[in-house]
Design brief:
Number of strands: 2
Radius of gyration: 25 Å
Strand order of the largest sheet: 1-2
Shape: globular
Distance between the termini: 57 Å
Length: 450
Amino acid sequence: MYSRIGGTASSDTWRRRRAVLWGTAAVVALGFLTALEIASRRYGEPGPLTTQVNALVFAPKPGPLYGGLVLMMVVLTWRQRFLAAGAALGIDAVLLLVRWAAGAEAPDGHSAGTGALWVMLATAFIAVTRRTGEERVLLLKGVGLGLLLVAARKTGDAWLFITAKTRPAVLDPYVATADHALGNPSWLAGRIVEATHPVSTHVLQLVYAQLAVAAVVVAAYQLRHVTAERRFPSHHLVRTFLLIGLLGPGVYMLFPVVGPVFAYGPGASGTGGVEWAVADLWPHTSPQIMAPHPVTYDGITPRNCMPSLHTAWAVAIFVHTRRAPRLLRYAGTFWLVTTLAATLGFGYHYGVDLIAGVVFALTVEAALRATRYGWDRRGIQLVAYGTAVFVALLLSYRYLPMQLARYPELSGPLLVLAMVSVVYGYIRTTRQWDPAPTPAPRPEPQPEPA
């Protein structure tokens, strides 16, 4: 009796602590979104809260609204999933007709998605008013997961806008100089893509732009048993994706870089221009080795180059598909290789950005997995080592670019070796965490009947 009462008290204490933790996280998240809203409005643009509210009526910008709906539906039965998807598509069809009848054309680049947002909010309302206990908690977790994906996109857009407004000077000459250690791979990849246009351009652009779709597919596979088990797994891809997107823009603010096609070319996606470039060199002429200095760039182009978050997200997809069926494993590998080719071939990133992105992704993934396993000594060492390597890379790009460029035979292998050491440490540590598969028992041979 005593142990039972003690166990109940301990369980109640743990539940209260979890409630306090989640409540604190919600307050911090709301405060962060409010701060981004205020900062965006200070520069004349709506923030993440305003754009999310506008999406309830007006056609939203392209984003993961339906991706968020897919993630939410992992907590629903198949019948409920069909109803939710049908309702979302029906609402969007009705709103499209209303806008057409009223002559209210959607701005360029805006599309459907309001129906998905309405369905997620309706599911939250049903969970609060019509469900109780564990069923309510599960539904709210599903809605929260879907809305987190949507909020992450809005938050990322606001972050990128703020980097362009608050960091007028960029450090591209430093990174371009350091990139000589790797042989300026962006210039080489740019010439290859140019020579294989239009096939390579269409394939790479499709993969690069649909990275979030690939992540939703992998996450949906990982969460496929939530409805049957009535609980979420302790770790899945969405957690890694969101944390990478939350921490990455903070590094953008410390290390503002726009990319080769902008700093050394004509720009892309309607921003930049030769008038802002250090020189019009990309991708045919590699920049000369000379003492770098910050340069002023336009107030529109995001400073979203260091580290390469597209690389980090592609690495996360690759890691989370290693235990999936063969088709998903092949898809994860294809997405990683093609994303690396796109980031370099389109001139969005330097080679050293990709190295930093790999280290950043594996360090974030290691921290999340260490949380799952209780932060043992191996987890602490891996996260500390990955963080140290990442910081050392950034410091070397900023303060030792000339040394990296002058001695590429030494500095190039060292940069690659630093990345490989983090990869090796991650593989070795996670293999020790994961239990070894036990072979299925074989029946003992039985003697044949006489």
